[in-house]
Amino acid sequence: DGGITQSPKYLFRKEGQNVTLSCEQNLNHDAMYWYRQDPGQGLRLIYYSQIVNDFQKGDIAEGYSVSREKKESFPLTVTSAQKNPTAFYLCASSMRGGLPSGNTIYFGEGSWLTVV
Amino acid sequence: QKEVEQNSGPLSVPEGAIASLNCTYSDRVSQSFFWYRQYSGKSPELIMSIYSNGDKEDGRFTAQLNKASQYVSLLIRDSQPSDSATYLCAVKDNQGGKLIFGQGTELSVKP
User: Could you give the C-alpha distances from B67 to A70, A113, B29, B45, in angstroms and in order?
Assistant: First the structure.
C-alpha cells in the first residue's frame, strides 16, 4: 500500500538525549515536511524539504535537525537543545510543482514523543 | 508573519443540524486552501480543498472561498456524532509550498 510511515509511534526520551523519528513515503512525492502539534493547538512547521539534499527551516526549527539523503526518507532528530520536546510529531509529503490545484499534503499517522 | 485564524470553539450543534466553521487568512496572494479533520490522538485527514472563489460541494461538506474578504469556510450538513472532531483550516504558502495551519475548531455534534 502507498503511504507515509512514521516510526516509532510512541517514544520516551530522557533529559539530555537525542532521539530520531523516522518518516518514509512510497508515494514518489518530492516534498516532505515535519510538523509539531501540542495539545489543543494547531500544527507548527519544523522543517521541510522540496528535493533531495535540500531542506529549509520552518517556524520552530531550533533544537531539531533533519536530513534528506533519499527521496523517500526524511528523518527528524530531536536534540537535547530542544527544551520542551513533548508533543505529537507529524510527517507529511506532497508532489512539488507550481499548480495550485495540485500538491495536496498528506500526513503520516504521527509519533508521540514524551520526555521522562 | 503569515497567519491563519480560526475560532477554537468548542462549537456544539445538535445531530442533523448544519455546522459552520470559519477561517480567515492574512496572505492576500494565497491560492490554495484546505480543510482537514482530526480525531483526538490521530493525524489530520483531508476533507476538502478549494482554489477558486465560490462554493465547492462534496457530499455533506461544502467549502466556501472569498478571496476578496480573505476567508474560507466549511459547512457540514446533516451533522452526525461521528463528525465530532477538530477541524483544521490550512493555507498553502506560495513560497515553498508549505501549509500554514489555524489552531483548529473543535466541533461537538450532540445526539
Answer: 38, 38, 9, 24
Q: What pLDDT digit, counting tens, does each position of B12-31 carry?
A: 999 999 999 999 999 888 88
Give the type of residue at B19. Answer: A
* Contact between chains at B44 and A50 (C-beta distance less than 8 A): no
* Digit-coded pLDDT (tens) for A87-104: 999 999 988 754 555 568
Distance, CA of B50 to CA of B63 (rounded, Å): 7
3-state SS, B39-83, equals CCCCCCEEEEEECCCEEEEECCEEEEEECCCCEEEEEECCCCHHH
Of the candidates B44, B62, B47, the one whose C-alpha atom is nearest the C-alpha of residue A37 is: B44
- Going from the C-alpha of B51 to that of each of A54, B19, B56, B66, B91, the distances in angstroms are 28, 22, 9, 10, 10
**Closest Cβ opposite residue A50 in set B44, B88, B96:** B96
What distance in Å separates the CA atoms of residue B107 and residue B111, rounded to the nearest whole number? 13
Q: Which of B43, B52, B101 to mutate to test the interface with A (most CBs of A within 10 A)?
A: B43
Say what the pLDDT of residue A105 is.
87
C-alpha cell recorded at residue B32? 490554495
Q: What pLDDT digit, counting tens, does each position of B38-82 carry?
A: 999 999 999 999 998 999 999 999 999 999 999 999 999 999 999
